[in-house]
User: Which sequence fits this backbone?
């Protein structure tokens, strides 16, 4: 029984899956009915397979696995097509906890027929294989395992590529596997744009695992596409996705091949503001990763001025250096900062407000100044609970808009009244004198910038 146990278990597993997932042919149903009547078996073939599987495990003195599955209602879930893949994975986990060799033997037997793309392969078998990877001796089946995961990664079925990603997060811990993952990079890039947080998170983890190994570099074709995608993920709602995307961005800068560095500079430049904002994230891990990646970006761009301010931990000075380097980009920086005014995190909104206040100083005299300031005021006024800094900057920008309209020879009806209303809300401003004139002794950071 010990000698043939894994082979018998696989046969029962196939029988269970096929009789649950597929409609039983008429001749088989007729034969089974005759067996049922003669031997008093269960009326359904899959129920009999579950009974036989329990008997096998008990015969091998593995009653604890049977009981663990019973407690978690695993045997019942095996009989339902919709939950069977989950139950098979649960069974694999229970077996792997105490029976590594047995579980490994089953996984190897599941791999052999399906590497030939036989039609009976299905999600439950993939679920078992993914759970068994940790106890599998990969030296015996590296190629077939990677081939199987790769095939299902390209599947349009969400469940299949989800399971394949779980498998790849395990496989890419192996250096041999990691070096052969390159053909899958395009598909992994596509999955970074998937709507499901878990799929995005696992795709990021696969990339991270690959780049942890020595002597693996990022190609000049993959680096620009990957960093552009990662830049979008910086603003993901899930903090774990933000953390992984920022960490991976840092890795790509470190490991891109020499000929890929120049094309990457544009994306790295774009990342500076977002990384600066996320240095204020409420999640300390995200804030720390942002600061480290910002330091790496300054080094990548050979911006010693930015690097110096970061090492001194003077983020406000960093923002000033960023804006002072090219004042013509002030409008672009302002527009990029606007979405952060809607952040659910108060520290991020405040960091964006302060940056916008600084950027407004560098915007003066530029052709798009009035248009950009109008956009900014509209965005800032949408904050239901504005900070004092927000109100102060609204007052400053409101005054500047009024001046620009006056010098251009036109004035919108009610604009001065609206401006006075904004100023009244800002602490430290005296609306009885000249518009926007600060009270005596008032010296906020925004006024100094003005």
Assistant:
């Amino acid at each position: 029984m010990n000698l043939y146990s894994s082979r018998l278990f696989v046969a029962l597993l196939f029988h269970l899956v096929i009789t649950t997932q597929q409609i039983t042919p008429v001749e088989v149903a007729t034969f089974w009915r005759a067996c049922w009547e003669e031997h008093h078996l269960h009326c359904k073939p899959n129920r009999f397979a579950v009974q036989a599987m329990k008997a096998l495990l008990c015969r091998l003195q593995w009653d604890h696995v049977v009981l663990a599955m019973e407690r978690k209602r695993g045997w019942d879930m095996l009989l339902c097509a919709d939950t069977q893949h989950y139950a098979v994975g649960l069974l694999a986990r229970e077996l792997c906890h105490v029976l590594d060799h047995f579980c490994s033997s089953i996984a190897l037997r599941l791999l052999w027929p399906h590497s030939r793309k036989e039609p009976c392969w299905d999600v439950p078998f993939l679920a078992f294989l993914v759970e068994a990877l940790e106890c599998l001796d990969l030296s015996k089946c590296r190629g077939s395992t990677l081939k199987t995961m790769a095939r299902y990664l390209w599947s349009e079925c969400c469940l299949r590529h989800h399971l394949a990603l779980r498998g790849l997060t395990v496989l890419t811990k192996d250096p041999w596997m990691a070096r052969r993952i390159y053909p899958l990079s395009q598909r992994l890039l596509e999955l970074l744009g998937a709507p499901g947080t878990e799929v995005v998170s696992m795709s990021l983890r696969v990339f991270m695992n690959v780049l942890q190994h020595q002597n693996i570099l990022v190609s000049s074709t993959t680096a620009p596409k990957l960093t552009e995608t990662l830049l979008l993920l910086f603003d993901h709602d899930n903090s774990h996705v933000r953390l992984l995307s920022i960490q991976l961005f840092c890795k790509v800068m470190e490991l891109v091949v020499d000929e890929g560095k120049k094309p990457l500079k544009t994306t790295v430049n774009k990342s500076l503001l977002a990384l600066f904002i996320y240095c204020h994230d409420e999640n300390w891990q995200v804030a720390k990763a942002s600061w480290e990646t910002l330091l790496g970006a300054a080094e990548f761009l050979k911006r010693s001025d930015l690097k110096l301010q970061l090492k001194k931990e003077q983020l406000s000075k960093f923002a000033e250096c960023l804006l002072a380097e090219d004042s013509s980009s002030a409008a672009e920086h302002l527009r990029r900062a606007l979405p952060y005014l809607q952040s659910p995190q108060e520290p991020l909104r405040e960091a964006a407000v302060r940056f916008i206040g600084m950027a407004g100083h560098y915007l003066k005299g530029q052709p798009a100044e009035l248009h950009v300031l109008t956009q900014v005021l509209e965005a800032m006024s949408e904050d239901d609970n504005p900070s004092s800094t927000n109100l102060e900057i609204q007052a400053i920008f409101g005054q500047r808009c009024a001046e620009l309209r006056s010098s251009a020879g036109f004035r919108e009806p009610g604009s001065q009244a609206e401006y006075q209303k904004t100023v009244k809300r800002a602490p430290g401003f005296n609306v009885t004198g000249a518009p926007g004139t600060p009270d005596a002794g008032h010296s906020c950071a925004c006024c100094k910038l003005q």
Remarks:
- Residues 411-450 have pLDDT under 50 and may be disordered.
